[in-house]
Amino acid sequence: MTKPQYTISCRKVWKIFGPNPGGVRPLLNQGLSRSEILAQTGHVIAVRNVSFDVRPGEIFVVMGLSGSGKSTLIRCLSRLIEPTEGEIIVDGQNVVDFDATQLRELRRRKMSMVFQRFGLFPHRTILDNVSYGLEVQGIKKEQRHDQARQVIEMVGLKGWEKYYPHELSGGMQQRVGLARALAVDPEILLCDEPFSALDPLIRREMQEELLRLQNTLNKTLVFITHDFLEAIKLGHHIAIMKDGEIVQLGRPEEIVAHPVNDYVREFTRDVPRVKILTAKTIMTVAAADAASGHVTVHADTTLEKLIGLTAVSPDPLAVLDNDGCVIGMVDRTAVLQALSEGN
Amino acid sequence: MSRTVRNKRPYLLLGLGLLVVLLLVHHFVLNLNLFPEAWDVRLREPLDVFKQWSIRNQTTHPVFLYFFEPISDAIDFALRRAETFLLWLPWPVLLAAVFLTAQKAGNLRLALLTSFCLLFMGLVGLWPQSMQTLALMTVSVLIALLIGIPLGIWAGRNKKVERGLRPLLDAMQTMPAFVYLLPVVLFFGIARVPSAVATIIYALPPAIRLTTLGIREVDRETVEAARSFGATPRQILFKVQLPLALPTIMAGVNQTIMMALGIVVIAAMIGAAGLGGVVLDSLRSLRVGLALEAGLAIMFLAVLLDRLSEAIAVRNRTGVMVMNGRLFPRSWQTNRLISRLEAGLDWLYTTGGRGLTRLASLSRSDFVVQYAYLFASLLLLGVLLWLGRTLDWTTFPEAWRFNLQDPTDTAVRWLRDNLFEFELGPFLLGTRPFSNFVILQLLDPLDAFFQEFLSWPALILLVALLGYWVSGWRLALGGAVVLFGVGLLGMWELALVTLSQVIVAVFFALIIALPLGVWAAKSNTVAAVLRPILDFLQTIPAFVYLVPVIMLFNVGRVPGIMASVLYALPPAIRLTNLGIRQASPDAVEAAQAFGSTSRQLLLKVQLPLALPSIVTGINQTVMMVLAMVVVAGMVGGAGLGLEAVNGLARNQLGQGIEAGLAIVILAVVIDRLLLAGATRTSVSGNR
Predict the structure, then answer these.
(1) Which of A10, B510, B590, B620 has a CA positioned 20 to 30 A from the CA of residue B247?
(2) Which CATH number fits domain A274-340: 3.30.230.10, 3.40.50.720, 3.10.580.10, 3.30.70.3180?
């Protein structure tokens, strides 16, 4: 069997909270809205027909405001919350069909989770917190402590093994949370707003740390956040959720360049566009022959650099892809337009 | 809200009209003073028949043979064993064990306190009785925990179980302690086993409740984290939930112990030997001195068990053991003598500890080093035991007898001669005139009001109307039916006597407690002074209050009321204080910003905000006074309490049960009415 193309694939996942979720579906088919259903039946539609794919080794960010269903969605992936409907394919297997033992194995070895308020065990030392996942797998004390010590060192907490969580600062506690998740060497890391409870400075530091770890360990991450800037900084792909649905899914620069509606556009306003937008996202598609003799730029060149280049070049620039083929053109008007959309 | 009120009005008016008609009939047509005697269902007769039957069939009927007998035998075995063991143990061994445990779990101060508590029992010559009570406590509490903790865990992990248990536990906690005796006596007779059974049942609720609470309190994210790592339910329970719930569970253990001690004298009414029995007998024969000694012994036992179990619980929470020779409050250390003394003790402790560790490390075993203190203690106890057995130290030396009885009795005589009645200028003062005033001006008029002015049908209608007003049809109908039941039991007049005593006691308790509570909320000094006193009052088992009260007021209805007032004060003061202190600081700050005077702040903001808490306090006061009805009966507080006490004392079980049932009915009706009323105030308070 070849390795599946996607590490996680969600297909039409629903989560409806209430006494009789099945009975609510017909109403949805009649086209009733979320609030109408809540008023009539008392059921809350937390996740509504969500599908997405996560590629191996990428950071997939789910971004949404509170109440958008993102935390419910991430818990559906490891069935901490049972999805009402839909398929969740992890490495080619549908997690929804798993029995209790298979599910436990999945949680023990393949997926681990980092929590918003850290979810540390207050009665255990840092070392015992980090080795918890190995402990429930039944690994001997010596071995699990050795493994845990390595991970603790990796997240920069060497020397703190004997302390208790409450003796550490918030940022350090979340390092413990991260170490605890990494200690079982999972393929997938589920992060539920891991940095939301931290101060802005610490948050940035932790984001860098996460990127660094991601570069060396190459895990697949599903990362929840309500902070659009964080999503853009970390995500290879971003899904924006509203009222339980995904309203837009794409690469960060695609979303910034082409928000599908005002809701998404609102988030993109504070984004430093010059750093995110690239030649590829603002160019007009053109044939190779039209570009002969023009100054060329790579497709991933940021808007920041394009400003300088177009300033000194009266003619449009030719945009090249990785193979050196011309795929489009960028002129001053395009650059100025891309800048102005931000306001 | 407004709609329901409008709907209720015509019915309320109709009811009031009916009430007036009833009163007119009663006063001008037909005297309805007495509940018709012909309607008495004479429940006592079948009950007594059943009792006779159960005594006759105790050895033959399968229900006794295969259900009650084995339970009874097992408890009896455990009780006998525990008692024999504690009486066999030379007293210095127990003393040393308590000292060593207390100083390990707490500090030297705790060790000295607990040792003194234990020593006191010997000094007043009540060592054997104390050991009997201790045995009863140990066995009952252990069994209660054995049942309660697993049940609590089950309820903590299963919402359905909790929903099923909760109303049962609520009901159990509103019942006066005495009620537990009744069914127990029916099935187990009168002896030491039934008193243990009653103690177990009575002490069970906090063990269940606090275990459940502990499990539920564990942070959801923590449990979810454990689940997300694939922990099995068992692993979650043992590695996460139980360790984190432990402090709360230990608080439950502490409360279970205190509940068990609280019923010790009442349990003596159905045959428990020990300190409770001594108190009971001495109260009956009015030997106040002896009652004081035994009462104090129970109190010290309560303090001992309370502080010791609390220290162990707290130690579990922090996981750190501090061994130090601290003896006095930190602020006293400015005194040179004290700081010298403490430095000396500290030196002794550190050197001793170091020596112990060095000695233990000779064995080259980590285990021995880690538990060095335990091994050393066991060794010491072993030596003491051997010494004690060879030198026969089992009985507490008579020569050390510290006599409290005679001076107390002298004091009581002096009080009787001097304080009961004396003249001061034109006034006749003292406790007897006070008693007379309470009886003639408060109790008798109230009695007359209920019985002669209102008449029984009018009183039932009044309760129904109140129930309808504060809640709805169900409470109205339910209240009326069960009150009518009191009449059917033939307990109507006695119930009215009790009711007026309860009202007077609650009245006294509130006029003392509410101002004190407000004062404590306003002044940190007052709060700091009151706190230890209230703590202390709440650790004391209820009937210990009887002793000083008898000294001052002799016997009768008034001393019963006074004991109830003392007993009910703490929660009322506490809840008033808390309610005012917890009133939203934002609101208080806002009121201050508008330039309110302290008085305006209190009357316009703090008191209204504290109202729900105060109403809860009043409810608790009433329930505590009701719980004291039987205890008050022991000092001659006429009414249902006395009837219940006499029923058990004279082995007229049916009569005791009838009185007990009537007390329960009173408690339940009043509790429901007040709770519904409290909900109403808190709802309107939130608007």
Answers:
(1) B620
(2) 3.10.580.10
Question: B4 to chain A, minimum CA–CA distance in Å?
Answer: 24
Whole-model pTM: value is 0.76
Instruction: Among A321-335, B314-328, B579-593, B634-648, name the one with the lowest average pLDDT.
Output: B314-328
Output the pLDDT for position B1: 40
| B685 pLDDT tier (thresholds 50, 70, 90) | very low
Phi, psi of A188 (to 5 degrees): -120, 140
Output the CATH code of domain A8-271.
3.40.50.300
Measured between CA atoms, the residue of chain B closest to residue A102 is B230
Q: Which of B230, B239, B243 lies at the smallest CB-CB distance from A105?
A: B230
Output the 3-class SS for B240-296: HHHHHHHHHHHHHHHHHHHHHHHCHHHHHCCCCCCHHHHHHHHHHCCCHHHHHHHHH
CA A82 to chain B, closest CA, distance in angstroms equals 13
| Count of A-B CB contacts under 8 Å | 64
Residues of A with CB under 8 A from a CB of B: 78, 80, 103-109, 111-113, 115-123, 132-133, 135-137, 180, 184, 190
Cβ contact (<8 Å) for A119 and B221?
yes
Strand order in the sheet with A59-64: A111-114, A188-192, A220-225, A59-64, A237-242, A245-250
Confidence of residue B39 (pLDDT cuts 50, 70, 90): confident
* Inter-chain CB proximity A119 and B224 less than 8 Å: yes
Backbone angles phi, psi at A105, to 5 degrees: -60, -45
Residue A23 predicted with pLDDT over 70: yes
**Residues carrying CATH 3.10.580.10, chain A:** 274-340
Chain B CB contacts of A116 below 8 Å: 221
Provide, as residue numbers in chain A, all residues whose Cβ is less than 8 Å from the Cβ of B222: 119-122
Please check whether residue B229 touches A, CB under 8 A.
yes
**B520, two tokens:** 């404590």
- Contact assignment for A107 to B228 by CB distance below 8 Å: yes
Give the pLDDT confidence of B557-584 residue by residue, as tens digits: 888 888 889 888 888 888 888 888 887 7
Per-residue model confidence as pLDDT tens digits over A95-121: 999 998 899 889 988 999 999 888 888
Of A27, A14, A60, A6, give the one whose Cα is nearest residue A240: A60
Integer angstrom CA distances of residue A5 from A12, A51, A106, A251, B425: 18, 15, 19, 18, 105
Mean of pLDDT values over B172-197: 77
The reply to whether residue B244 touches residue A123, judged by beta carbons under 8 angstroms, is yes
Q: What is the pLDDT of residues A295-320, one digit of tens each?
A: 888 888 888 888 888 888 888 888 88
